[in-house]
Amino acid sequence: MSITQYLTEEHRKCDTYYAEAEKAVSQGEWEKAKELFNTFKEKTLLHFRKEEDVLFPEFEQRTGIVMGPTQVMRMEHDQARQLLERMEQALQNQNKDEFLSLGESLMILLQQHNMKEEQILYPMSDQNLDSESMVVKMSELGEV
Ligand SMILES: [Fe+2]
Ligand SMILES: [Fe+2]
């Protein structure tokens, strides 16, 4: 399996986890929402770790491109992590409007972020890295 296939699939799964959490929040099912949001958050953070701890360092080493796309991706992960924290807070306060508005910001951020990875960073990684062993290493961190 290619790096592109493997990580693109994870983006799709995270989108689905968010859609489920969002639905529960919209319906005011707070206990269910907390559980579903937690899954979305944990899986998203795991996906980020696979990129930050396995893919990006190898990409930088193999291509010599250190101050390029990987730096931008790390910054965007930080922005996403901040939004996730604020969403968790909104959820604890049962503040539906706040949660949904933060969620919308996060989805816009991630849509653009994921597109850059899927169209540029992942294909470049498949070209320059040993895809099979990268997928094995990332899988060892857990399943999204
Ligand atoms: Fe990413
Ligand atoms: Fe990603």
Output the keywords.
86% helix; Four Helix Bundle (Hemerythrin (Met), subunit A); mainly alpha; 144 residues; elongated; binds fe (ii) ion; single chain; 0% strand
Summarize the structure in short:
By secondary structure, this protein is mainly α.
Secondary-structure-derived class:
mainly alpha
H/E element sequence: HHHHH
Number of strand segments = 0
Percent of residues in helices comes to over 70%
Report the radius of gyration as a whole number of Å: 16 Å
Bound molecules: fe (ii) ion
Task: Outline the structure in words.
The chain is mainly α and 144 residues long. It has one domain (3-139): nmb1532 protein domain like (Four Helix Bundle (Hemerythrin (Met), subunit A), Up-down Bundle). It is built from 5 helices and no strands. The protein has helices at residues 3-26, 30-63, 69-92, 96-128, 131-139. α1 (3-26) packs antiparallel against α4 (96-128), α2 (30-63) packs antiparallel against α5 and α3 runs antiparallel to α4 (96-128). The model has no long low-confidence stretch (mean pLDDT 98). Bound molecules: fe (ii) ion (FE2) (2 copies). The site of one fe (ii) ion has 6 residues, from α2, α3 and α4.
Secondary structure elements and pairings:
Elements: H1 3-26, H2 30-63, H3 69-92, H4 96-128, H5 131-139
Helix pairs in contact: 1-2, 1-4, 2-3, 2-5, 3-4
The structure holds fe (ii) ion (2 copies).
One fe (ii) ion binds at residues 48, 51, 73, 77, 113, 117.
